[in-house]
Design brief:
Radius of gyration: 21 Å
CATH topology of the largest domain: Dihydrodipicolinate Reductase, domain 2
Shape: globular
Number of domains: 2
Number of strands: 14
CATH architecture of the largest domain: 2-Layer Sandwich
Oligomer: single chain
Distance between the termini: 40 Å
C-alpha cells in the first residue's frame, strides 16, 4: 500500500457544523404508524426544521394514539388510507416517511411520488424487483427525492470499508463472502407482521439480508448482478417448538409463518466478482461467518455480529504484503459520535429535500440489491440457477 493510500485510510473527514435553516420548515407526513415509525418520528423531532402535520394507518385510531403517545397534538390523522391523506391539499405536504408493512411499500411510494411529495421509504425497498421498477418509474416522472432507509451505510465503519476498497489496497476484488445471522431472532415482539406472507412478503432475506448486501455492494461500486443460485428455508419459523416465540403463541405463530427465516446464494456479478451470501433469523449457530473481501493485492476481514443489524462486529483486519512479507493491518473501530444513525438518515433526507440534492441512498443502487433478493427467492422456488433480468426503468 502506498503512503498516500494509507493516509487516505487514516484521514477521517473532519466534522463540520452544518447550519440548518429552521425558518424553512419541511412539512412531514408518516404513512404507517407501527414499530419502525417510532424511530422515524423520534428522529424527526430532533430536527429544528421539521413540522409533523399528518399521519395515517389502516388500523382505525392507531395513528392518533401514536402521535399522542409522543406528546403531539394537532396532527391530522382522520384518514382511512394513504391516498386520502395525500389528496388533502390543505396539508401542503413536502415529504413522507413510509413505515408500512413490506407488501405496502411499493403502492404507498407510488401514491406519494405521484402526489408530488418527497419519499423516505423504509427498507426493504420492495418485495419484488418488478415493484421496485414501478416505484422508480414514478420517481422519474415526479422529479422528487426517493431515498431508501439504509442507515447502516452512514456508519463511519461502513464507509471505511468503501475507502479501503477505493484506496486500491485490495487490488482487483474477485470474491466476497457476506451475510449475517441470529441464533434465535425471528422478529415478533409486536405481533406477526414480519412473518406473515400477506404483510411481509419476504423474511430474513429482505429484513436484514438487504443490509449485508448493501455493505459490500456499496463498497465495490454496486456492479450489476448477472446470475444467482439461491436457497431459502423456514424450518424454525414454522416450528411450534421454536423458543423465540412467546410460549403461549408458539403454535399460532408457527401456523402463520409464511416467509423465509434463512437464505443463501451464490451470485455472479459484473466484473468477474463472485458473491457468496447467507442470512438468518434463526439457526443452530452463533454466526454464519465473518464478511471477507478478497482481492489480488489484499484481503479484508469484517467481523460478524452476534445479532446482525447492519453493523461491524469489531476491528477489521487487512491482509496484505509489505516488501514481500505477509502482514496484517488492524483497522480500529471508529466509535460512534453523538448523532445516531437514524438521526443521520433523517437529516440527510431532509437536506436533499430542501436543497434539491441527490437522494442519500438512491434507488438506482438499491435496485440491484432488490434484484439479488428477488433472484434468490425465484431461484429457490425453481431449485436452479437463474439469470437476473432487470427491466429498464
Amino acid at each position: 500500500m502506498t503512503d498516500k493510500s494509507m493516509a487516505g485510510l487514516n484521514d477521517l473527514a473532519e466534522k463540520q457544523t452544518v447550519h440548518i435553516d429552521a425558518d424553512k420548515k419541511v412539512r412531514i407526513g408518516i404513512i404507517g404508524t407501527g414499530w419502525i415509525a417510532d424511530a422515524h418520528l423520534r428522529a424527526y423531532l430532533h430536527q429544528p426544521d421539521v413540522e409533523i402535520v399528518a399521519g395515517c394507518d389502516l388500523i382505525e385510531g392507531k395513528a392518533k394514539a401514536f402521535f399522542e403517545s409522543h406528546g403531539l397534538s394537532g396532527v391530522k390523522t382522520d384518514y382511512k388510507n394513504d391516498e386520502e391523506m395525500l389528496a388533502d391539499t390543505s396539508l401542503a405536504l413536502d415529504a413522507v416517511s413510509i413505515c408500512t408493512y413490506n407488501r405496502q411499500h411499493a403502492a404507498c411510494a407510488i401514491h406519494a411520488l405521484k402526489a408530488g411529495v418527497h419519499v423516505l421509504l423504509e427498507k426493504p425497498f420492495t418485495v419484488t424487483l418488478d415493484e421496485a421498477v414501478e416505484v422508480m418509474r414514478a420517481e422519474r416522472e415526479s422529479g422528487k427525492v426517493l431515498s431508501i432507509g439504509f442507515q447502516p451505510r452512514l456508519d463511519e465503519n461502513m464507509q471505511m470499508i468503501k475507502r479501503i476498497v477505493d484506496s486500491g489496497a485490495l487490488g482487483k476484488v474477485y470474491y466476497i463472502q457476506t451475510g449475517g445471522g441470529r441464533r434465535r431472532g425471528i422478529p415478533t415482539p409486536f405481533g406477526t407482521s414480519f412473518i406473515e406472507d400477506e404483510t411481509a412478503g419476504i423474511g430474513a432475506l429482505g429484513d436484514i439480508g438487504c443490509y449485508s448486501l448493501d455493505m459490500v455492494l456499496k463498497a465495490i461500486g454496486y456492479p450489476k448482478p448477472l446470475t444467482v443460485s439461491g436457497y431459502t428455508s423456514n424450518v424454525f419459523g414454522t416450528s411450534p417448538t421454536y423458543v423465540g416465540y412467546p410460549a403461549d403463541k408458539r403454535e399460532a405463530y408457527a401456523k402463520r409463518f409464511g416467509v423465509d427465516d434463512f437464505a443463501a446464494a451464490f451470485v455472479r456479478l459484473e466484473g468477474g466478482i463472485i458473491l457468496d451470501f447467507r442470512i438468518s433469523w434463526a439457526m443452530n449457530m452463533d454466526t454464519p461467518g465473518d464478511t471477507i473481501i478478497l482481492g489480488t493485492e489484499g484481503g479484508l476481514r469484517i467481523p460478524s455480529t452476534e445479532c446482525w443489524n447492519g453493523t461491524v462486529g469489531g476491528p477489521m483486519k487487512l491482509y496484505h504484503e509489505v516488501c514481500g512479507q505477509q502482514t496484517e493491518t488492524v483497522i480500529p473501530i471508529i466509535e460512534p459520535g453523538e448523532v445516531g444513525l437514524f438521526d443521520k438518515k433523517i437529516r440527510s433526507f431532509l437536506d436533499a429535500c430542501k436543497n434539491g440534492t441527490p437522494a442519500p441512498v438512491p434507488s438506482f443502487e438499491i435496485l440491484y440489491n432488490q434484484a439479488i433478493i428477488d433472484g434468490i427467492a425465484k431461484s429457490a422456488k425453481l431449485g436452479r440457477e437463474i439469470e437476473i433480468d432487470i427491466p429498464k426503468v
